[in-house]
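TOPIC: backbone geometry
CONTENTS: sequence, structure tokens:
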Amino acid sequence: MSHFGENLRRVREDRNISQRELALKARLGLGTIEKYENDEQIPDTQTILKLSTVLDIPASELLEREVNDHHSSGIDAEIEQLINEIGQKRTKLILRKAKEFSEEDFLRVMQMLYEVKYEK
């Protein structure tokens, strides 16, 4: 499930920016912003980068699931659960490769994974 719309709305509201103002700054239609926030539409990579620039936030934070639970070890509860589910070796392999990616590379990979999973 996408968390983009929820994250976009939260960040926009945290910055006290209206949907109309965000649409103007990002050079998008107001209806487009509404569709993104309602998870009716997922933007392409370039649009995500544009929105992240306007909102001054890493694009990856617009895409990730926000989790407020942190263990005393400092590891997010969801990350710990994912490590347990896929195993440490696979997790290390994925993270080693991910750290080599630029922000744009990462967004392309996320878009590709989304398409593989949901656009069969």
